[in-house]
Design a protein that fits this description.
Organism: Sanguibacter gelidistatuariae
Pfam family, one: Acetyltransf_3
Order of helices and strands: HEEHHHEEEHEHEEH
Distance between the termini: 36 Å
Protein name: Ribosomal-protein-alanine N-acetyltransferase
InterPro entries: Acyl_CoA_acyltransferase, GNAT_dom, N-acetyltransferase
Family: Belongs to the acetyltransferase family. RimJ subfamily.
Largest sheet: 8 strands, mixed
CATH architecture of one domain: 3-Layer(aba) Sandwich
Radius of gyration: 17 Å
Length: 218
């Protein structure tokens, strides 16, 4: 943890200028900001059927009790951005907007960043259906994983996916992440506890970087 405290690297911009999948262009991971509100709301609205079934939800709590003493009401977009920035400054999260040639097309979050004897983090992501299948999600995951493994000094990155989420399973398959098995009732999704499969990669498995390995497979 001390490493992060000495060098709070936020905001961070990660980019791939060699994004070659037609029609090509530049893929950027950057901080989500307040002025993204309209674009973010628009892409979420147009992808409701595509994304909502995979969205995490808060489990029920006992009457009169709230997790952490906080309200369960949904934050405004401005509050959401502020919460993300706070977590990033604390060093526990890296919340990125995914941008392709200036268009906001998704989001990627590195969460549960832990140093000490574990040195690990978890990556979650979503992309708009109209750009799915073009290599955007695996490229974004590879960019973020390489930053965590070789800039932040983490050892292990994991991705947790619902077994029935075929598009997301294709992402980790393309990247060659190791399947570590099933986590039973791992996350609360759309009102119920759902199983997830865990996929992971360590720094030793990709000495040249996950992005380079992914590019070599294309």
């Amino acid at each position: 943890m001390a490493f992060w405290r000495r060098s709070p690297a936020w905001p961070v911009v990660l980019r791939d200028d060699s994004f070659t999948d037609p029609p090509g262009g530049t893929l950027i991971l950057r901080r989500l900001v307040r002025r993204d509100r309209d674009d973010w709301m628009d892409v979420r609205e147009h992808n409701a059927d595509w994304l909502d079934r995979w969205e995490a939800t808060l489990p029920p709590v006992l009457p009169g009790r709230h997790p952490g003493g906080r309200s369960r009401s949904a934050p405004t977009f401005g509050e959401y951005v502020r919460l993300l920035d706070g977590a990033a400054r604390d060093g526990t999260t890296l919340p990125f907007a995914i941008e392709l040639d200036g268009e906001l097309v998704g989001q990627l979050t590195v969460s549960s960043i832990t140093y000490g004897s574990m040195c690990s983090a978890s990556i979650g992501y979503w992309v708009s259906e109209h750009v799915a299948g073009r290599g955007i999600a695996p490229t974004a995951v590879a960019l973020a994983a390489d930053y965590c493994l070789f800039e932040l000094g983490l050892h292990r990155i994991e991705v947790n996916i619902r077994p029935e989420n075929a598009p997301s399973l294709r992402v980790v398959a393309k990247l060659g992440l190791r399947d570590e098995g099933l986590r039973v009732a791992y996350l609360h999704i759309q009102g119920r506890w759902c199983d997830h499969r865990t996929f992971a990669v360590t720094a030793e498995e990709v000495p040249g970087g996950l992005l380079a390995r992914w590019r070599g497979q294309q």
